[in-house]
């Protein structure tokens, strides 16, 4: 994943996906440099409270609730 991020133009690929997208991140990472770019390109940002780099470990209930909410609102 790091190699894809650094050398595989992962951001461009993610932003060009033709369906609703969400980016989940822990509140300790709320200063990530690319959050503004994601939001400006129509990606829903989902900050997971009380978590850092791995929200699925720090706050799994909140993470899965956000995923379920996104899925319920965007499924076709």
Write up what this structure looks like.
The chain is α+β, with helices and mostly antiparallel strands and 76 residues long. It has five helices and two strands. A two-stranded parallel sheet has the order 1-2. Strand 1 (22-26), helix 3 (35-40) and strand 2 form a beta-alpha-beta unit. The chain is globular, with a radius of gyration of 13 Å. The mean pLDDT is 92.
Which features would summarize this protein structure in a list?
single chain, 13% strand, 76 residues, 5 helices, alpha+beta, 49% helix
Computed over alpha carbons, the radius of gyration is 13 Å
Structural class: alpha+beta
- Outline the biggest β-sheet: 2 strands, parallel
**DSSP strand count:** 2
List low-pLDDT spans.
Answer: none
Question: How much of the residues is beta strand, in percent?
Answer: 5-15%
Query: Quick one: overall form?
Result: globular
Separation of the first and last Cα atoms:
29 Å
Strand order of the largest sheet: 1-2
Number of helices: 5
Please provide the ordered H/E string of secondary-structure elements: HHEHEHH
Mean of all residue-level pLDDT scores: 92
Helix content: 40-55%
